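Q: I'm writing up a methods section and want to include an example of the input and output format. Could you take the sequence below and give the corresponding predicted structure tokens, formatted cleanly so I can copy it straight into the document?
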Amino acid sequence: FCLALIQLHVSAVKSDNLQRACALVREASAKGAKVVALPECFNSPYGTQYFKEYAEKIPGESTQKLSEVAKQCSVYLVGGRSIPEEDGGKLYNTCTVFGPDGAMLAKHRKVHLFDIDIPGKIQFRESETLSPGNSFSMFDTPYCKVGLGICYDIRFPEMAQIYGQKGCQLLIYPGAFNLTTGPAHWELLQRGRAVDNQVYVAAVSPARDEKASYVAWGHSTVVNPWGEVVAQAGAEEAVIYTDIDLKKLAEIRQQIPILSQKRCDLYGIEMKK
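A: Here is the clean output for your methods example:
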């Protein structure tokens, strides 16, 4: 099946972002995409100072638009971190997924908050305004089961391993790495998660905006279970397409059967919630 990643140029105007995102979903659908993914923070600037201002409840304006366009285009739509979600007085970094009938199939709240301090490079603390999610998020399609993470979640291999154990063959990470972590780890982490678990990994970023307070790396990418980059954008706004070949995935798992060769008598990883 065809997967499309929308590397959107995000502005400070929520309505413009929503309109542009929906237009690109329609474009991707017209070109045959069956699963379409938007980037982290696609409808607001990325930064702790913006989260409260742009926050919405779910369902709300942004998720309603995503539901409508998913149904109109008959696609599975991964809504990036569509919005900072407000719920019970707390804010979450939340990704929603809608099916071809417009129904919400999953709601993933970012599990690992992005709190880093690299001297002379970047300091960022999502926990100043956001609360963490406490659950794994998966959804079924007629093609395969899909596991969800958001950006920093990709750095925690245990999460991807749980998804693999649960039968996921594609992992999607809306993300927004920066100009420090992006060149060093963006592609490396995707290739690592793909090879470790013999799955496809897709990570979709906003386009780079040099004038933004937080400058995203871009380079939305799809990696196959062999660890090969099969599609990649540059820094500018773009839609990239790739065929997710589940036959190839099955062949790789047969040739190198690591999933059946794990020493579960010696070690294991479990999902607690």
